[in-house]
Amino acid sequence: MALAAGCCLTAAACGSSKSGTASTSADGITTITVNDEPASTDAVNRKNFLADIAAFEAKNPKIKVIPHEGQMDPKTFSAKIAGGQLENVFYTYFTDPAGLIAKHQALDITSYLSAFPLVKTVKPQLMKVYSDSAGKVYGIPQGNYSMGLVYNRTLFTKAGLDPNSPPTTWAEVRADAKKIAALGNGIAGYGDYSKSNTGGWHFTAEMYSLGGDVAKQGSDGKWTADFNNDKGRQVLQQLHDMRWVDDSMGQKQLLEWADLLQMMGAGKLGMYVATSDNIPTISNQYKGNAADYGLGPIPGGGGTLAGGGGFMFNPKDTPAQVKAGIAWLSYKYLTPGQGEYDYARASAAKQPVGLPEPDLWTGAAEATRTSLVAANANVPVQNYQPFVTGNANVPLDVEPPNAQQIYAVLDTAMAQVLTNKNADVNKLLSDAEKQVNSILSTVQ
């Protein structure tokens, strides 16, 4: 804020773009606004963010960066852009770019990228998230995650299973869950969600793992539900049978996000579908031992629910602002060992280093990341190798449109098969299909 005020003390020293954001001053300094600044309550990451701005500006004296807290809020985005309040460079989730591109609410930056070689090191499948059907690029990924199988290596060993070879099919998950549950003492072999939208989220991940989908877009651009089929029945029927036939999922159901992490931390759960960042949370917040946990590939391997985010550009940015924005992103988010991925700094602050994601880079950049992680790792990297190997070629699938509304509907189907022994899987899918089609009918 002080920087912004200092820039605009005199009209001669501060120009503006059509969006009302700061542009290039008379002395050739380009000022950009960016979001993603951590909140003041996140003291360590906020300090690092501001330190990175200072270091970037020292290397690029003709660029000034004004940070804003927070990220994109889809509920207020249209009003923000209409009112000229949108940052020059703004954070989006992977579910946002397609809609923003279609509505012309983000700038085509394709012609600028050749001057920034670090962008070329980003995985093509991630760049595709920020591209249109013609291959034009509207943003740059910053990080990503995908679903795998978090499992308790100690329980695997006690159950006579190989902790270095987690299951890779759903049939193997079922068989291994029975062996783990047979240990008794209140241990569940496998856990799943069915409340607060987490059940629908996991149903979607499990559909993707079978090569299925939850929603599909027709040639006319309209979306419809795509889970009332054999794959949808397979997901629900397996959960029903594990719960009621095998008794391998425990008696307590209607679980939501924290429940499975707490069970895993207490040594009462063998496996569940999750992302790698669950592991430090289990260790730090739920008092688990990091060495106990492994990460395997998504069972089935037909696809994995992927998420993450990156940055897009205000459609009213000037060319100078676009260049400055890409330079900032290259420094802060695209360089292994620097900025967001300063592994030495993170390790010194006791933040986890060595998790298998974000899986952002290719080629020499990825080799550099691997070397730096190995030198600064403070988590048991070897425990995650099954995920790294097994998920390497699994297709990445992003969430459906209106995801949270859809997840709320699918919660019911998940809850029913886990709490009602006589649940009618076909009826559950049919009822959910009608509701999801109604939700999807509003997608533009």
Automatic annotation (TrEMBL):
Organism this protein belongs to: Streptacidiphilus alkalitolerans
Q: Which InterPro entries match?
A: Bact_solute-bd_prot1, SBP
Q: Coiled-coil stretches, from where to where?
A: none
What superkingdom heads the lineage? Bacteria
Q: Name one Pfam family in it.
A: SBP_bac_1
Name used for this protein in its record: ABC transporter substrate-binding protein
